[in-house]
Write a structure and sequence with these properties.
The protein is an alpha+beta fold. Among the domains are: 119 residues, no CATH class; 96 residues, Elongation Factor Tu (Ef-tu), domain 3, CATH 2.40.30.170; 65 residues, Helix Hairpins (Orthogonal Bundle). It is built from six helices and 20 strands. The strands form four sheets. The chain has a six-stranded antiparallel barrel. It has a four-stranded antiparallel beta sheet with strand order 3-10-8-5, with no helix packed on it. A hairpin with a 3-residue loop joins strand 18 and strand 19. Helix 2 runs antiparallel to helix 3. The protein starts with 6 loop residues before the first helix and ends with a helix.
Length: 442
Amino acid sequence: MASYASPAEDLRTELAQVEGGRKWVKRLVFATLLVGVTAGTVLWRERHRPPTPSRFVTSAVTRGDVVEKVQATGAVQPLLQVNVGAQVNGRVVSVLVDFNSFVKKGDLLAEIDASVYGAQASQQEANLAAQRAQIESANGAHEAAKANYERMQRLVAQKLASKAEVDAAKGQYDTTKAGIEAARASLKAIEAQLKQSLTNVGYTRIVAPIDGVVVNRAIDPGATVAASFQTPTLFVVAQDLKRMRVIADVDEADVGKLKEGMAVEAVVDAFPGEVFKGVLSQLRFSANTVQGVVTYPAIVEVENPEEKLRPGMTATIAVRTHEALAVRRIPNAALRFKPAPVDDKDARKAGGDDAKPALKPVLASPDAVLPKGEARLFVLYKTAAQGRRPGDLKEDAVTKTVHVGITDGLFTELTDDQDLPGESLVITDESDEKDDKKKKPF
């Protein structure tokens, strides 16, 4: 039995077919618009994307001052510092000065008990008096022996005395004469002992040897001083503190740049930003070697009118050895830079299909030793190349030999302006994008 479709069903079927066709048309239009927008966005980003970052970090040639300095560190000390000690043993009975006391030459600093040395001096004075009396007695005996000898000589001439009696009288005369000489020698010995005892009494008074200030005191009243084997230091007296000196250790590589009489600037941590003026007074020949490092002592006299510098401070000195004002200069980093090699694959990946290993430096005998006054660096040249995005440039790192002068550690003087044009860019470092990407956490 054949199926029969009503007119209403046929109408619904036709409407469904029409509606399905419209959906496909809308989908096609939407897909076309999406592809167009995507292509336009890609094209816009490609045209407006910034150029590829340079592989190198560069710096321009600048103009300024280059001042060559020699720097060293050392300790601040007084120009003259005297250690005052004791030459006798004993108990300290009084101390008359303290730290930072100003003293004049000959001022009494301390006293040691002098009773023992005074007693010794008194004993020697008594011995001296006794010895003088003994000399007087010896003189009397000598005069008597002399008179007896002369009488015997007269008697023997008259044949009233024998030759033996004359010889005995002469022997007695000579003996008394020798006794006088021995007594006089003993007198001198006793006088020397008395002088020593009086000197020891004087040593019990410790006095200032120079005008200055007491920077150290090592004793107190009641302390016992023992000077038998080594003289103890009781006081340290520094001369006028308005002038100080710095004993700095200069490296052997810099010692040839210094000469006595050069102006020096010194700074200390206690007064940041303040510069103390001085002069290099002595450059000693004796070397100090510590762990294979050789230095030479440089003596710098520094003015200290306000007495800000104190003994023992650590000072940093700077000596201007040479200076060049308003000259063309290059950073020292450019003289130390050496570019890493770049292979063909990396060069094409960075710059396009037409790129060649142009970033490889053009070196002419890179290991050759240059004469004094010349240095080698790398200059960056940028040129346009086909096949690259707009704005991208081809980079060439070309080695150049330049004439250089003095350096201050940051910049080096260019002595020949013809070596580098005014707009030259010298390479100081190399930026590695791969390493930067590796360092990023995300």
